[in-house]
Amino acid sequence: MNSKGIMPAPFDEMSSADGNSRPGYELIKRWLDSETPESLGHRRLEAELLFRRIGITFAVYGDEEAEERIIPFDIVPRVLTKTEWRKLATGLEQRVTALNMFLADIYGTGEILKAGIIPSDLVYRNPYFRPEMMGLKLPHDIYVQIAGIDLVRTDAEDFYVLEDNARTPSGVSYMLENREVMMRVFPDLFAEYRIDPVETYPEELLATLTSVAPNSAPGEPAVALLTPGPLNSAYYEHSFLADKLGIDLVEGSDLLVRDNVVFMRTTEGLKRVDVLYRRLDDDFLDPLTFLPTSVLGVPGLMNAYRAGNITLANAVGTGVADDKAVYSYMPEIVRFYLGAEPILKNVPTWRCREKDACAHVLDNLHDLVVKEVAGSGGYGMLIGPAADKATRDIFAEKIKADPDNFIAQPTLALSTCPTVVDAGIAPRHVDLRPFVLYGADKVRIVPGGLTRVALKEGSLVVNSSQGGGTKDTWVLDA
Fold first, then answer.
1. Contacts of 108-115 spanning 24+ positions with Cβ under 8 A
2. Residue 117 lies in a domain
3. CA separation for the pair 264, 247 (Å, rounded)
4. pLDDT tens digit string along 260-304?
5. Exposure string (b/e) for 233-260, b if CB count within 10 Å is 16 or more?
6. What does the alpha-carbon distance between residue 252 and residue 245 come to, in Å, rounded to a whole number?
7. pTM to 2 decimal places
8. Least crowded by CB within 10 Å, which of 67, 144, 300, 356?
9. Exposed/middle/buried for residue 144 (C-beta within 10 Å: 0-12, 13-18, 19+)
């Protein structure tokens, strides 16, 4: 919002104010200008049929109409230049490095807390803080091997980090399948553009996971992917990634712990597992340590973890870094551990746990986006300018009742990309989730990531569970 409370026009990633194409979009603009709504509709249908044939689905809990859905896909790619991507990749590596140092510190000597940079209660009272991790030495001090960092853009220069996903970031299967479908539907565009590949992600992920294996692993580390099972909303991705990596997809019942070593049951007997890429929340991992009623985890897994015989990716307790109040301290976290200014900016954030900030938020709900500190998926949030007074009043009462549970941010004019709609082409708001792989040997970031698009006109919510879709993201190798 500007000083008069008017939302500025969003940044158009394809076209400048004078109608000229921005760098990288020249060919896309010519292609779109040459297409009719009918031909675009035909291409969109062709892409949808491919997705249905492949079987790419996601589940929406509580949706009675359709538990399994095909994720909406837009056929107009989002384009980034090599210069734009280099800056983003450098900033992403810096940020995930700082996140790992922060997590190692708070589960270790807590220097950042002693220095008063972050309030101790924000960490120790966090629902995702795991006291069981205190003093536990992890291989290579790496807590976040796979990070999904959500970025939004507001102008030609500025990308902002909207949130960090350090527990079990999802969506990479859509990034890979989006590229495959685009290459099938638009081979002519790929022949004219030089586009950095994303197809190397599975081998990069496997190399990362192998690099963080415990020192006790005999020979070549054995890696498996732990899933909650077919009823999980992201099960498609779990099975997809296990297949691409060439590793076993296992459920808790497939594993057992003997002498603090994790084994997988196979037809040929027990096989040792050294690294678990786990897509299972902390609470369900080990009924002997966490939720006693969990039938999804592995009894004794935490004992093997403490003994240094298994690497969990990502580590237990990384959810503290996902907290939106902790997020607000990321500039200070980067400075504290790295002695450098953050390359990627945070969105300005008011912490409602602070009295003056809370008063400002309550006075300006009509202008702000309010989020629960542990919320995700676009749930538990208020977009002030789009909400009626009654809704804002309800949220105000929630904030007053539990101010520690909320943060607020300005309503950003998120950038737009051209998107196919029923009437032809129209701008729609987008964000970007690049995937950062943090190994013991190096940091790997495949160029691009998952672009999510708010398909509803005027909507700022890009989550697929709330009507959003995805696009292929092209980083031009030029």
1. 108/135, 112/333, 112/336, 112/337, 115/336
2. no
3. 12
4. 999 999 999 999 999 999 999 999 999 999 999 999 999 999 999
5. bbbbbbbbbbebbebbbbbbebbbbeeb
6. 19
7. 0.93
8. 356
9. buried
| Residue keyed to tokens 């500039």 | 331
Give me the pLDDT at residue 155, please: 87
CB 351 within 8 A of CB 304: no
- Render pLDDT for 1-59 as a digit per residue (tens, 0 to 9): 444 444 568 999 999 988 899 999 999 999 999 988 889 989 999 998 888 887 766 55
Rg from Cα positions in the chain:
23
Of 44, 26, 34, 42, the residue nearest 192 (C-alpha) = 26
Is the distance from CB of 412 to CB of 430 less than 8 angstroms?
Answer: no
Phi, psi at 225, each rounded to 5°? -110, 120
The per-residue pLDDT for range 128-186, each reduced to its tens digit, is: 999 999 999 998 899 999 999 999 999 878 899 999 999 989 999 999 999 999 999 99
The identity of residue 31, as a single letter, is W
- Which residues are bridge partners to 181 per DSSP? none
Expressed as residue numbers, the domain containing 373 is 348-411
Q: Is residue 439 part of a domain?
A: no
Return the percentage of the chain with pLDDT > 70, whole number: 93
For the beta carbon of residue 9, count every other beta carbon within 10 angstroms. 10
Alpha carbons 121 and 127: distance in angstroms, whole number: 11
Note the pLDDT of residue 5: 45
Predicted pLDDT at 379: 67
pLDDT at 59 (0 to 100): 57
Tokens, residue 405: 């549970």
* 111 contacts 104 by C-beta, under 8 angstroms: no
List pLDDT tens digits, range 205-242: 999 999 999 988 888 999 999 999 999 888 989 999 99
Q: Do residues 340 and 97 touch, judged by C-beta distance below 8 A?
A: no
Element holding 59 (H helix, E strand): strand 57-59
Distances (CA, A) of 49 to 26, 75, 185: 28, 13, 11
pLDDT (mean) for 418-433 = 92
SS3 418: strand
What does the DSSP assignment read for 228-287? --TTSTTHHHHHHHHHHHT-EEE-GGGEEEETTEEEEEETTEEEE--EEEE-S-GGGT-T
**361 found inside a domain:** yes
Cβ atoms 24, 80 nearer than 8 A: yes
Residue 417: what residue type?
C
Residues 57 and 454: beta-carbon distance below 8 Å = no
Q: What is the CATH number of the domain that holds 401?
A: 3.30.1490.270
Q: How many domains does the chain have?
A: 1
